[in-house]
Amino acid sequence: ENDKHMGVIIGHMRSNGMAKCFNRIRTMSAQLDDEVDPEKGRNNGAISAMFWWLFKSKDMAESYDYMFHVETDARPIRKNWIDRVYEEVEFSDDFWIMGTMYRGTSNPRDWCYDMYLGCAEHFNGNALYRLGDPVFNEFLAKAEESQDMHWGYDAWIMNYLKQEDNFQFYA
C-alpha cells in the first residue's frame, strides 16, 4: 500500500515539474509494525523509529554526506528554498545538525504532554544532518539507546546532549 501511495506522490512531483529539482527520488521504509506505529505515523515512537532507522541505513551513509530531513507536517514557505538548503551545506563548515530552534508556544503544556519543563528548548527536527560521521553516529546510537519513546527524537537529542555525561561528544 505504501508503494502505491509513493507512486502517486512521485507522479505528482513529475507532473508539476518538481522532480527536476532533484537528481534522484528514492523512497525507503522502516517497515514499522502496528506495535511500534499503532497510529500510522502520528506518534513520537514511530516518528523516532523512522528517524533512527535513516541513520543506520548504509545506503544513505554511502550515498550522501548530508540529509535534509523534513517532517510530514512541514511545508516550504519561501521560493527557492531548496537552493538555500544546498548553499548551507556547500558553504558551511562541517556540522552535525543545522536547523532552527523550536519557534512555537513557550508553554510546554500546550504541546509537550506534561513531559517536562523547558521542552521548547529543542531544535526543530526539520534540519540538515551529517551522514557517515563516526562520532556523530556514536552519539546518535547512544541517544537512541536511552530514548524515552514518549519524546520526539528532536527533543530527545537535545535532552541527551544537555546531560553532563555526554559533554565529551562536543568538548
Question: What can you tell me about this protein's structure?
Answer:
With 171 residues, this protein is mainly alpha-helical. The protein is 38% helix and 6% strand. It is built from 6 helices and 3 strands; from the N terminus they run αααβαββαα. It has helices at residues 2-15, 44-56, 58-63, 81-90, 134-146, 153-161; strands at residues 66-69, 97-98, 127-130. The protein has a 3-stranded antiparallel β-sheet, with no helix packed on it. The longest helix has 14 residues, at 2-15. The N and C termini lie far apart (46 Å).
Indicate the structural class: mainly alpha
Instruction: Kindly state the number of beta strands.
Output: 3
Round the mean pLDDT to the nearest integer and report it.
76
Q: Supply Rg.
A: 17 Å
Helix content: 25-40%
Order of helices and strands: HHHEHEEHH
Terminal Cα separation, in Å?
46 Å
**Percent in strands:** 5-15%
Strands of the widest sheet, in order across it, are: 1-3-2
Task: Characterize the main sheet.
Answer: 3 strands, antiparallel
Net shape: globular
Give the helix tally.
6
Poorly predicted runs: none
Key structural traits:
single chain, 171 residues, mainly alpha
Would you kindly provide a brief summary of this structure?
The chain is mostly helical and about 170 residues long.
